[in-house]
């Protein structure tokens, strides 16, 4: 039905969503039943002793909670081309690769048509609510999206990043057209083999269609900020291309050059206009609405590890609304942003009860319920039992468990969420952090969110000198006793030693976890170290992941670099310009 639709019926989509979320508990039972009936013949489920039962009680009693490590042997057999049903009833034909920024290497995750259907449902649902608040007409979207090459697994399955599998699916383009959000760049640019060349061409296409651009988007906020930081460097070259109607020689791939040649015609008036706009901007403030006068909003994932980029994105956006995209992962989707007028920091995600079966492990009762072993979180037997989608409580934090249509059963996603309220009977979740990204040496436990808050506090000191933290990461140095936290900063310009010493002290004081503070006071944890790296260091980290097959669309700067990620740690350590030790305690 959606294939035949030219434009989405927004009110019908919202109406269907309202009906479904009013009966979330029953929809969940039916969804689980459908998943188990479709995949009951799979070896994994056959071994669990369900014997055809599809009710939640039997499912929870028979099927254990698992992590990716538990499922890895099964997924590997699928990737190696096993003919019998391993995880799903229907054969898996595609493998998604996770970004790999957490553990240093990408994970294999099954991808199938059902997962693509849930992707489209999430896209359509959030678009319906978004378009009611910020209606767009039939224009174009400047989408900074990139698709890596599909490779083949040993068993002949297509393998690519999750975003690549979505962007290359014919349904994606139809969905964008139905949502009046067609990308202004040709397909050859999106699938171009070199990210830097594709980014340049995305910017050029945006300028060519500057009056038609209604929204600017990417998968993550980081990609949008990176695009406009790049624009600051290449805008004069872009103007030359537009003025002469000839593409710069930096674009070397014939397919990309050929596609761009069809769009690029000499336009000195447009080149003059862009030059005039750029020259009158103060420090590039308001760049996006200046270039694209009809832009309605900027869209991408802006929560979690993307929050640190919001300040720079707001600088480029001026008064253009920022809207955070939906909540999902390579493993599957969870919720849609149905309150698009909220600022990204307050974004919540309403869980769609028919796209998977969801459980939640309460974390409040389990504050001491996990410990650190060799950098990995070890879950103790005292952990509370998971609760169902409609049983969660407002104000409480949980770890998300997902059962999907793509062969993941009671899978620990590793995300911590907070229940902010309910939409009808489905919860609205706020993403808090990744559970396994944790700075810890002794009895201290500091999450990605704690690190982000500490960096934001300390960064205020350099903001007074008109400088900003471009990016950051962290590490625990236990090479000497006592061990200590190491924070890596890349800064936009020179800052005095005096100010950076105070930044280091501020970082140390800003970790308010009781275990950390008490350990620092008795020197069980050593003074925090701030290492300032040369400009461009985090771009080297991005390039490292691109060489491993990642795509910019899916890239997230690793906020904690653990022992399994020694190549990234080496890049950071090899590029240290200055370092400081805290005297705060």
From TrEMBL:
Under the heading Pfam families, the entry gives: GH3, GH3_C, GH3_M
Q: Which is one Gene Ontology cellular component term of this protein?
A: cytoplasm
Where in the sequence is the signal peptide annotated? none
Q: Does the keyword Repeat apply?
A: no
Q: Which UniProt keywords apply?
A: Ligase
Q: Where's the GH3 C-terminal domain? A: 449-561
According to the entry, every stretch annotated as the GH3 middle domain falls at 349-434
* PANTHER family, A to Z: GH3 DOMAIN-CONTAINING PROTEIN, JASMONOYL--L-AMINO ACID SYNTHETASE JAR1
Its protein name is Jasmonic acid-amido synthetase JAR1-like
The organism of origin for this protein: Gossypium mustelinum
């Amino acid at each position: 039905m959606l294939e035949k639709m030219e434009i989405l019926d927004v009110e019908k989509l919202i109406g269907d969503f309202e009906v479904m979320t009013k009966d979330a508990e029953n929809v969940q039972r039916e969804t689980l039943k459908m998943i188990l009936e479709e995949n009951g013949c799979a070896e994994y489920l056959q071994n669990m002793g369900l014997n055809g039962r599809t009710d939640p009680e039997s499912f929870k009693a028979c099927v254990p909670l698992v992590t990716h490590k538990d499922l890895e042997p099964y997924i590997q057999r699928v990737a190696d081309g096993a003919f019998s049903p391993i995880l799903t009833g229907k054969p898996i034909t595609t493998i998604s690769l996770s970004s790999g920024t957490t553990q240093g290497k990408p994970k294999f995750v099954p991808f199938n048509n059902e997962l693509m259907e849930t992707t489209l449902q999430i896209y359509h649902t959030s678009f319906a609510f978004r378009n009611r608040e910020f209606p767009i007409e039939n224009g174009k979207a400047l989408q900074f999206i990139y698709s890596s090459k599909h490779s083949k697994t040993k068993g002949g399955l297509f393998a690519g990043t999750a975003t690549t599998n979505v962007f290359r699916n014919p349904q994606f383009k139809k969905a964008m057209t139905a949502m009046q959000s067609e990308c202004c760049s040709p397909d050859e640019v999106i699938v171009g083999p070199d990210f830097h060349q594709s980014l340049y061409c995305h910017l050029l296409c945006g300028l060519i269609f500057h009056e038609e651009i209604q929204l600017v988007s990417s998968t993550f906020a980081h990609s949008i900020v990176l695009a406009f930081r790049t624009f600051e460097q290449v805008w004069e070259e872009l103007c030359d291309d537009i003025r002469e109607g000839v593409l710069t020689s930096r674009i070397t791939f014939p397919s990309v050059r050929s596609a761009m040649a069809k769009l690029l015609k000499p336009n000195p008036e447009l080149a003059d206009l862009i030059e005039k706009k750029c020259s009158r901007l103060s420090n590039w403030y308001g760049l996006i609405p200046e270039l694209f006068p009809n832009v309605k909003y900027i869209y991408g994932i802006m929560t979690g590890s993307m929050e640190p980029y919001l300040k720079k994105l707001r600088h480029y956006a001026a008064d253009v609304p920022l809207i955070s995209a939906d909540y999902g992962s390579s493993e599957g989707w969870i919720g849609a942003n149905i309150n698009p007028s909220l600022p990204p920091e307050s974004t919540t995600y309403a869980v769609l009860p028919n796209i998977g079966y969801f459980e939640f492990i309460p974390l409040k009762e389990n504050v001491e319920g996990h410990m650190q072993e060799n950098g990995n979180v070890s879950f103790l037997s005292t952990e509370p039992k998971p609760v169902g989608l409609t049983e969660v409580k407002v104000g409480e934090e949980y770890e998300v468990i997902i059962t999907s249509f793509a062969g993941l059963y009671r899978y620990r996603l590793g995300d911590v969420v907070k229940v902010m309220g309910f939409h009808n009977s489905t919860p609205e979740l706020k993403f808090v952090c990744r559970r396994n990204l944790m700075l810890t040496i002794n009895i201290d436990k500091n999450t990605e969110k704690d690190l982000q808050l500490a960096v934001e506090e300390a960064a205020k000191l350099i903001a007074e000198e008109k400088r900003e933290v471009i990016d950051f990461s962290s590490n625990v140095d236990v090479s000497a006793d006592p061990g200590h936290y190491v924070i890596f900063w890349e800064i936009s310009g020179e800052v005095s030693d005096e100010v950076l010493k105070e930044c280091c002290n501020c970082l140390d004081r800003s970790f308010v976890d009781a275990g950390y503070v008490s350990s620092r006071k008795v020197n069980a944890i050593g003074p925090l170290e701030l290492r300032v790296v040369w400009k461009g260091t985090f771009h080297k980290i991005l390039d490292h992941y691109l060489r491993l097959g990642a795509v910019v669309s899916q890239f997230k700067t690793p906020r904690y670099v653990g022992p399994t990620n020694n190549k990234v740690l080496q890049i950071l350590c090899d590029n240290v310009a200055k370092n400081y030790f805290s005297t705060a305690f």
